[in-house]
Amino acid sequence: MNTLILIFFPVVAALLIALAKGQRSREAALIAALIELAFVVVICVQFRPDASSQFDFDYAWIGSLGIRFSGGIDGISILLVLLSGIAVPLIILSTFNRTYSRASQFYALILFMQAAMIGAFTARDGFLFYFSFEVALIPIYFLAAMWGGENRVAVTLKFFVYTIFGSLFMLLAFVYLYYQTPLVDGHHTSAIADFYQLNLTPEAQTWLFWAFFVAFAIKMPVFPFHTWQPDTYVESPTPATMLLAGVMLKMGVYGLIRFILPIVPLGVETWGKTAIILAVIGIIWGSIIAIRQRDMKRLIAYSSFSHVGLMAAGVFSQTETGMQGALIQMLAHGVNVIGMFFVADIIFSRTQTRQLDQLGGITRNTPKLTVYFMIILLGSVALPLTNGFIGEFLLLHGVYTYNNYIGLAAGFTIIFGAVYMLRMFQKSMFGPATARTKNFTDLTLSESLVFVPLVIMVFWMGIYPQTFLKLTEPAVVNLMKYIGTTVVSLK
Amino acid sequence: MKPELLCALIPLFPLIGFIINGVGFRRIPKGAAGAIALIAVLASFLTSAFLFGAFVGQESLPNSTDPLIATLFNWISVGDLQINFSFQIDQLSLLMLLIVTGVGSLIHLYSIGYMKHDEGFGKFMAFMNLFIFFMLLLVMGSNFVIMFIGWEGVGLCSYLLIGFWNTNTSYNNAARKAFVMNRIGDLGFLLGIFTIINTFGTVEYVDVFRQAASLPIGDSTILLITLLLFVGAMGKSAQIPLFTWLPDAMAGPTPVSALIHAATMVTAGIYMVVRSNVLYTLAPLTLEIIGGIAIATALLAALVGLLQNDIKKVLAYSTVSQLGYMFLGLSVTAYTAGMFHVITHAFFKALLFLAAGSVIHAMSDEQDIRKMGGLRKALPITFVTFLLGTWAISGIPPLSGFFSKDEILAHVFVQNKVLWVLGVIGSGLTSFYMFRLLFLTFFGEFRGTDEQRHHLHESPGSMTAPLIVLAILSVIGGLLNLPGESTPGGGWLHHFLEPIFAGSAQINPTALTLNFDHTTEYTLMAVSAGVAVLSLVIAYFMYISRKAVPAPDIADRSLPEQVVYGKFYIDELYDAIIVRPIRGMGDALYSFGEGLVDGVVNGTAWLVRQGAGQLRRLQSGSIGFYVLAMVVSIVLIFALRFFIRF
């Protein structure tokens, strides 16, 4: 098995679906995504839990410049590859009760998106990462701009420009790093492993830190680079929102772990605290705003912004718990946020509203929806024995270890999270029924089939997280060495 | 059978019960659902009793005082941090197991009768089982993180059960308030766990306490840990300032009040402190703080209880007050006495709530005692059992509450005379408001409507049987720990729990023993019993001889009376200083903050573009744009760093 298959299978499938323009592009896309998931599962089972990169591919790409088309899967990538594999079939399945115009293009774009994301998560060459990072924007841009809500054009443009703007900094950083690598056969290299070996001056590390940070902070997003996010999440069609929040934003967190920590450890020493403080401001900022939101989708968007802040803070805590927490929380958050947006979509599809004050009393007719919604909610508020707890426990421990007061501030997420999530649940599900909700019907079979795997993941990760922690542990230990060496060399 | 399996079975039974009733809700007939739920808890009770017997039976063996640790699997492992999913069976957990499953079984039996006509019956029984499951994890866990699972889990179940009738918005709000307020405490607990991890490198009780025992008394890290953990206890055990959720939690069906808010969940905080007694003995300052909070809570809640007219509200405030007494005991390192009061309180408070439920059942869901009166004829069993419960909680000999409260007060007397005086005053208030409740409900003339009078009936056997069992336990519960080591059977609990406090005894040998002569002991007993009886007599004169009935809500009240009647306006205070500001901030951040941030970031981009436009004339290619953008950003960040030092 080879990582290349994971990247190119969805591309081929997408092309076929787009060209065939058949009636059954939805089913075809689902089958393709399920086959991709099967590949991913095989890879996860075959994966040796050690620090090495596995299932590698390596080809000359731009030979004269030493840029190679190379990739592979290590402990940092594996859970994100798994997340991409799980998310896409569920996202496609979640559309089975909807009809989208130009369906063949719609589903082809989703599969393109998957390929680009897996490319970013598995790239072992800096420019391949950059390329995938940017390429992923194209399908999501079209998904949002063509199938989105009323304000889609303005909102999507803002999102697109914002993100491109950020990644230009990253490009600059890569160019700089590229020229720092030693000449081999008359050219430099852009392999990420070679970037790790560089001895960069503290000054260079400072601006590289910020160049990378701005790019990834916009992607996640981290305060104050988040203002594109709520509008984009709300205006995008729900499958695109799920892709954005469930998988794509993890590119940002992944970038922090893959690039910033090992390449510019001195930059992290100096500026990590600033980054953590920004992230923690975001946690509180996002959750306080979420408490007052009336639109379910916007509420979930702000909660996602808040949760991502904790992941960023955990990474910059430079602790093993923070790092492991971020890795497992990326998977958990992906699962939960897809579930949450699906709930909002189901409610919207039946009531034509997402406004909480027009909802209520839905639970009377919907035992299935109530139970699944509640379980996903419990995962989101990090109740022990659900997936969210493992991640938040480790992340908060990391941040608290880094600095007790910042840890305390970040900890408010568990209180505010309970406030806004339970408020949303109560206002939509409980209380007296309204004119819009009185004829609410319970989940259809295809809708239930989306929730079942999500709920299994919520409990699996919560009750036996070792399955996932074991996969990432050696890579994290290895990564800690890069941080450790610099800390020693500083003294 | 392996002990690991046996341990695992105890929480497994209610979990299975929850899953069966949860999945089969609306398909399983009510009779079967009730039976499944009851059998699940009974099975846990019997398993616990078997374990208890086996554990006590091997007391003669060497090392019998060592706890039994049953490790199921490695739950979370990151670097050096290993968190096992494991249970610890020792004297303390066995005692808690018996209370939780024993009293729990009785409440399940009662619920079958009480909730019979509710359409959500199966769901209700499933939630009750889930609650027992989490409570069992809480008391059985062998480390702080497993305790935390139960800790948060019971919070969830209280949310589900308080808001059980979910079409009612005020019930839903009460449920949410309970969960959120518990979460505030949970944050403290969580940070306490983190500090434990960073100090001891483990969360296992045995290892943490062994390492801690070598630290000096007053160690600052231990101070931090104990304070943080106590914040958790404030939430769960409803102490000032996190107590206001408990009275509101009466919104749930009455068996819920008995299960969650009297007999088990709220005792979690006490259990946690007793479990961590080594840490608390090392932190005298924390104990002093606990003492202050405890007595303030006990008195404040008792004062509010004096004027409440809702039968469940009075009981709710009495729970808050009694929890204050338990913490008061712990604050003077009278850990055994605190546990003793946990046990007796579990008996009589469950009894009182269930009896109140029986009254409400008979009164067609009326809870206002101003509309009751004279019920003793119509509800003889409920009346007698309620009387015994009142007698027990008031601390009048020879019922159980007298012995446990007296033991706490005796320890307090030795350490702090002022606290003792306040404690005795609180005890007098307790006796007054409880007998006021009893007299107004069961004596005098019936004050309800004719229709209610017509429907008055004693509850069915499934409801009265638990009342009778609990009443017997409330009467004889004192036998567990009779005063004086010399009397036959005296101090059994003290002796039984001794191994749990071995670490504390080693750190501070004088703290755990009660040394004073019998004359003082008997005098103290006489004083506290005398005050309680005096309050009873006053209540008798007011509500039976003078037939006083509390004024309606709108009546004019003197200012102090109005303040107490309004529960000191603490909910309103929290609303004004916490809830509203946060809401206001949410609105402000959304309306202005987001726009401001967006404006600043966009403005920066715009400036960069303008600059780049100028630059482009000088230099072809867009690299200049990147550099300038970068420079501007870095300058901004440096500027930020300059103005805000961190």
Give a quick summary of the entry.
The complex is a heterodimer of chains A (491) and B (646). By secondary structure, chain A is mostly helical.
Describe the structure.
The complex is a heterodimer of chains A (491) and B (646). By secondary structure, chain A is mainly alpha-helical. In chain A, helix 17 (387-402) packs across helix 19. Chain A is built from 20 helices and two strands. Chain B is mainly α and 646 residues long. Chain B has helices spanning 3-23, 30-57, 91-114, 121-140, 144-162, 169-200, 205-212, 220-236, 245-248, 254-263, 268-275, 277-281, 284-307, 311-331, 335-362, 380-393, 400-415, 417-442, 450-455, 461-476, 492-497, 502-507, 518-545, 559-565, 570-618, 623-643, and strands at residues 68-78, 81-89. The longest helix of chain B has 49 residues, at 570-618. At the A-B interface, helix 7, helix 9, helix 13, helix 15 and helix 17 of A face strand 1, helix 5, helix 6, helix 25 and helix 26 of B.
